[in-house]
Structures are given as C-alpha cells and as structure tokens.
Amino acid sequence: MTTTVDDDQQLDALFTALSDRTRRDIIARLSRGEATVKELAERYTMSMQAVSQHLQVLERSGLISRGRHRQTRPCRLEPERLEVAVSWIEDSRRTWSERMDRLETRLAHLQEGEL
C-alpha cells in the first residue's frame, strides 16, 4: 500500500473531520438529505457559530459542500469523499490480514518442528 503526500493529507483531513462525534452526527444527518446550518444547529445546545465551525472542518475535508438557494446555503454530503477513507481502511485490513495469515502459517510450522 503506497500513499502519496497528497493522499496522506486527504486522509488526515478526513480522519480529523470524522474524529468528532458532532461532525459524525452531522454527516449522518446529511446522508438523509440537504440541510441548512440553522436546521443542523437545531439539534444541538451549542451556538450557531460552533456548528458553523464544525461545518467548516467538514467542508475543508471535502465531506460536505454548500450550495446557494435564495437566502440559504444548504449543506450536502459528498459521499464519494468517504471512499478515500474506506479504501485506505480496506487496504490496511487486507495488509494486516495477510500478515496475520503468514504469522499463523509460520507458527504452525514451528509447532510442527519445522524452521
């Protein structure tokens, strides 16, 4: 699994954005459809400004985008961005699974007295 600096920066931004429970909750809400900042903020006891800061982190990571509709700027999920993280996780899982398989084989050989 080879990653470039750009890939690493994208992953850092994605995992940073997803590291916060509120931002994951916002992602889950947007997976059901667009919402304005006001609609998103209604769910929380934090200020509108605090919700906007969470949205900025999500937007910088590419997980959401904001459009324009009359006086509002609805937020929408950009699900294809999640594929970058899913791909990295899957590659890592495959790598570790292969390593564990090799270790298991090696241990079995050692138990049988082979070197």
User: What fold name stands as the CATH topology?
Assistant: Arc Repressor Mutant, subunit A
Strand content: 5-15%
The helix tally amounts to 5
Strand order of the largest sheet: 1-2
Number of strands: 2
Overall morphology: elongated
CATH superfamily: Winged helix-like DNA-binding domain superfamily/Winged helix DNA-binding domain
Q: How many domains is the backbone divided into?
A: 1
Mean pLDDT: 90
Q: What is the CATH architecture descriptor?
A: Orthogonal Bundle
Task: Give a quick rundown of the structure.
This protein is mainly alpha-helical and 115 residues long.
Task: Please describe the structure with a list of short key phrases separated by commas or semicolons.
2 strands; elongated; Arc Repressor Mutant, subunit A; 115 residues; 5% strand; 63% helix; mainly alpha
Question: Overview of this structure, please?
Answer:
63% of the residues lie in helices and 5% in strands. With 115 residues, it is mainly α. It has a single domain, classed as Winged helix-like DNA-binding domain superfamily/Winged helix DNA-binding domain (Arc Repressor Mutant, subunit A, Orthogonal Bundle). The protein has a two-stranded antiparallel ribbon with strand order 1-2. A hairpin with an 8-residue loop joins strand 1 (64-66) and strand 2 (75-77). Helix 2 (21-30) packs across helix 4. The longest helix has 30 residues, at 82-111. The model has no long low-confidence stretch (mean pLDDT 90).
